[in-house]
Amino acid sequence: MTELLYPVPAQAKQNSHLTPELYEEMYQESINDPDTFWQKQSSILNWAHQPTKIKNTSYDKNNVDIRWFEDGELNVSYNCIDRHLKTQAQQTAIIWEGDDPSKDKHISYQELHDQVCQLANGLKKLGVSKGDRVAIYMPMVAEAAYAMLACARIGAVHSIIFAGFSPNAIADRINNCEAKVLITADEGRRGGKTVPLKSNVDQALTGNRCKTIERTIVLRNTGSDINWHSQDVCWQELIQDCTSICEPEIMQAEDPLFILYTSGSTGVPKGVVHTSGGYLVYAAMTHKYVFDYQPNEIYWCAADVGWITGHSYMVYGPLANGATTLLFEGIPNYPDINRVAQIVDKHQVNILYTAPTVIRSLMAHGTKPIQDTERTSLRQLGSVGEPINPEAWHWYYEVMGNKNCTIVDTWWQTETGGIMMTPLPSVTELKPGAASKPFFGIQPALLNQDGEELSDEAEGNLVIKASWPGQARTIYADHSRFIDTYFSAYENVYFTGDGCRRDQDDYYWITGRVDDVLNVSGHRLGTAEIESCLVAHPAIAEAAVVGFPHDIKGQGIYVFVTPIDGQVTNSELTKQINTWVRQEISPIATPDLIQWTQALPKTRSGKIMRRILRKIAANEHEQLGDISTLAEPSSVQTLIAGRLNKA
Ligand code: ATP
Ligand code: MG
């Protein structure tokens, strides 16, 4: 695996929030004296009542209890909007870029305030109050952000359901969190296609399936004909006579802000609960330092609002910092493969934050994705969601970033609320593919199977030894599942479920999920390393590696690969790839079986679902488990049909 070091570029040091010395000093304080450190950092927000109790957390599995800033009081929407009005009311808060490239909108902080207050008053009119749950099933329009902030304003708890989900998935989530109101739109637009949101909602609610829903607010978005039912109320009509004044509800720091269901790469979705004070402190701080955000910069997080990245780094973090955040309705390759780069040029984006799956899908087209664009506004690039293969890192760095930008490869989870490990632009020398170093307050450790902590250079299960403010507090209505999942494998630490390696320079490398680790003839192999090696081969676009039962080795290596555009696949190429892995990594890592496919099964957020591939490889496709979060369930049948080793 490449460990090339890229020095911190001179431009990244100018005006930056941090220097290497300051990072070190702050990091030490955050670990040695968390109370003092976080008390100081809490001033990144405006509190109605300043917290005096800072950290009160227990990882004891008989009593997992996590509280931060517990006597503090604040309102999240006030912090994301009102406090900026004095000096930047006319500054753009949200740039909305439509699926159709001719459509866009700039929403100022003042306008955001007015829209959010009107909807908040509308929600009140429907009887929504503090603590009630509101489900949001919206396309990527500015109103999705208004809906989140309107809930926060009145103390309602939102739960966003990704707009790609099916009626069953919607119903399951609504019922789990017992939402009182559902906010949706007639239709959404994505990649030139319409998404029938209201019709999906009708199916989800049919036959009294979701008993807790009293009203459904429907935004007229495309304006097309939909069925209206007695419980439906049109968003535009609802807010017509609502004023744009709505006093923010003062909330306790530990009052819940939202519930979000994880993407489901590893099983039945969990309703992760985040609270108000700690979450917002952490989202704002990480956004400020990890992207080294400077006033007036244009910041684009190309995630969907339905994922945690959309919550923390498209809405809450940037708005808390008074940033201009870009919200893109469409997909990276519509209408053209260079859409991402076009948007960067059009809005003069300074910071771009996206996922390896997007980078790999663009990379498969060489330099076409940057055709006729300059991207000179870009200063900073970010990646999140999966390990970024060095090959994809280099493409991102050289092609998209013109070799001018630093890349922050940010490792974190829905459950962590914000970024946990990452390079920092003005501080960290870059190693392509490494999540690098812990953020303030984060104490990573590597444990072996027996729970013993490994020192120095090592590879093991990644745990976090102490709480941080952005940490999830529970799984909604199932605290025991929260404890089982994160606090029972090992004593007194948070178990991430990810494998990780620490190198000689104390850089951390995520090796993949612990469940995905292979054991081949007694050798433990991470999926990330083999996949990176495969993707580095010029014929391969994407790769997924899983284990399957093997009489001699215990586990064999089963590889699923998609070819680069236009590549002809044959047995000669398959042989070449075998040799390639053998040479690049080791004979132990040589694939036993290589199956070519046009598509891999992915979650809606673009992550490969190895859980399903494992079942296919093991010929257990009768028991695929929950596939409700798959982007294209049909890809599974094709994979099963093409399965190798049919004997
Ligand atoms: P579920 O928990 O429901 O199975 P999920 O883990 O995919 O779904 P997320 O919380 O969105 O849901 O993703 C977090 C996981 O994504 C991490 O645990 C890690 O495996 C992976 N990940 C995220 N960012 C990175 C990164 N920069 N490098 C490596 N892996 C990453
Ligand atoms: Mg997870």
Automatic annotation (TrEMBL):
Coiled-coil spans in chain: none
Domain AMP-binding enzyme C-terminal, residue spans: 529-607
Known function: Catalyzes the conversion of acetate into acetyl-CoA (AcCoA), an essential intermediate at the junction of anabolic and catabolic pathways. AcsA undergoes a two-step reaction. In the first half reaction, AcsA combines acetate with ATP to form acetyl-adenylate (AcAMP) intermediate. In the second half reaction, it can then transfer the acetyl group from AcAMP to the sulfhydryl group of CoA, forming the product AcCoA.
One Pfam family hit: AMP-binding
Record's protein name: Acetyl-coenzyme A synthetase
Residue ranges crossing the lipid bilayer per the database entry: none
Key words, A-Z: Acetylation, ATP-binding, Ligase, Magnesium, Metal-binding, Nucleotide-binding
Domain AMP-dependent synthetase/ligase positions: 82-466
Species lineage: Bacteria, Pseudomonadati, Pseudomonadota, Gammaproteobacteria, Alteromonadales
Enzyme Commission number(s) of this protein: 6.2.1.1
